[in-house]
Amino acid sequence: MPRKERITRKEIAAAAFRMARKEGMEEVTARKLAGAAGCSTQPIFRVYQNMDEVQADVLEQAVAFFEDFYNNYPKSQAVPFVNLGLAYISFAQKEGNLFRAMFLSENRNGRSLYELLNGKNGNVLKEISKAKAEGCRDPQDLFMKMWIFTHGAACMAITGDYDLGITETVGQLVGAYRAFR
Q: Between the CA atoms of 48, 53, 57 and 60, what dihedral angle is there, to the nearest 10 degrees?
């Protein structure tokens, strides 16, 4: 009778996600993952072909985590793109390792930054629609400008160079929106 598998793919993926969140995706190696999951490397390679496949699973979990983060982030601002920008910058501040894996890596499971940010709920499309409803003539161009501005702020947060509070950040995002509009 074959030996019963004691650790599942789901458990290994959860351990890998915890590692990536805490230490960074580059630290998710087979040996370290085995230690974190409480197994040898053999069960990892029984359920995964290689570590790239593990990292793809971790990225999918990170995408879902960001989607939940954004959905639960307070939406207190009426100006288009401001709530999205606030959530994005906050995610960079609070979840730096996941932010790096999702938004500062070339390995995004074939998706663009736009696709990751837009998510399943059409986060960006909703903001573009709001801008259009406000009379913006080219809301896609406005989004691109806001995205560059917001992504820059988030990257500054990752390096520790962003020290603005929420009030100042709202002011910057609203100011950028009005200037770019």
A: -160
